[in-house]
Design goal:
- The chain contains five helices and eight strands.
- The chain is of the alpha/beta class and about 180 residues long.
- It has two domains: about 50 residues, no CATH class; about 80 residues, Vaccinia Virus protein VP39 (Rossmann fold, 3-Layer(aba) Sandwich), CATH 3.40.50.
- Strands 3-2-1-4-5-8-7-6 form an eight-stranded mixed sheet.
- Helix 4 runs parallel beside helix 5.
- The longest helix has 13 residues.
């Protein structure tokens, strides 16, 4: 797993061991995600929820996002994110928080332009966090959810509306926006 482009281009990232801990985003899927949001990333405030190794947030920082908050309940994951941030020289633009996602979102006072939601596949967590994410997303913000192919998400979660859905092999990427129009 490597950073695709930007200031940390080509740098390999440390991953977590074990499928129960994390389901890392495939490189092809990550390329597709960032291709679809490339013009939204520079200057963005990013939240990488269920961060795992931090690869989505690190990719955003490498592409000139102004800040990324990484949240994962695993201490091992948080330590891996910190190692990856230091290795890529992106640590100064990041905050790493060890917390359960819904707890963090319940107390969050920040507003984000981009939120990545990539929970472990065997967990039914997207439905729990989406209403809370809707309260911290900027008016023109984007929420990207990654799920396995057989998982269906709602068209709307409060103010968040499904704008697009992409299929990459056995993975679905769901793009939500506030009052979005399909085709954007």
């Amino acid at each position: 797993m490597k950073v695709i482009t930007g200031t940390a281009k080509g740098k390999p990232l440390k991953t977590l061991e074990g499928a129960d801990i994390v389901s890392p985003t495939a490189q092809k899927v990550k390329e597709g995600i960032f291709s679809s949001i490339q013009f939204n990333v520079p200057g963005a405030r990013v939240l990488d929820l269920f961060a795992g190794s931090g690869q989505l947030g690190i990719e955003a920082l490498s592409r000139d996002a102004s800040l990324c908050v990484f949240v994962d309940q695993s201490r091992e994951a948080a330590n891996t994110v910190i190692e990856n941030l230091k290795y890529t020289n992106l640590f100064t633009k990041a905050r790493v928080i060890t917390s359960e996602a819904t707890r963090y979102l319940s107390f969050c006072k920040d507003e984000f332009d981009i939120v990545f939601i990539d929970p472990p596949y065997r967990k039914e967590l997207v439905d729990e966090v989406m209403p809370l994410v809707g309260e911290i997303i900027a008016e023109d913000g984007i929420v990207i959810c990654e799920t396995e192919l057989r998982k269906e998400l709602e068209e709307c979660y409060g103010a968040l509306t499904l704008a697009k859905k992409y299929k990459y092999g056995k993975t679905l990427i769901w793009r939500y926006q506030i009052n979005s129009e399909a085709g954007e």
